[in-house]
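In this supplementary section we document a worked example of the pipeline. Step one takes a protein sequence of length 109 as its only input; no multiple sequence alignment statistics are reported here. Step two produces a three-dimensional model, which step three serialises into structure tokens for compact storage. The input and output of this example are shown verbatim.
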Amino acid sequence: MESAPVIIVEGLFIQYFEEIEKELDLRLFIEAKDHVKLGRRIRRDQVERGYDLDDVLYRYQFHVMPVYESLIEPLKHNADVVIPNNSNFQQALDVLVGFIRYKLAGIGN
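The serialised model returned by step three reads:
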């Protein structure tokens, strides 16, 4: 991998791995209200994956949410910034762009 002034690492479990988490300059946690997450999941799984509603709801209740609650949501407390993604996150994106520009200018080193 070539070095770069900015590397963006994305994934549900990035902060779960301490050896990666300690290398991050900025830790983000993007969250949405439960009903928003469920609605998005239903639309995606029905349209893109062809799952019926009962299957989507079963997976969400017995697989998705238990894993989220036990492994992912606790990582929010280690984040530097928590971004709500319920409808529009343009302002959060503007803040992130400002942070990246700040780091690239060498001010934040």
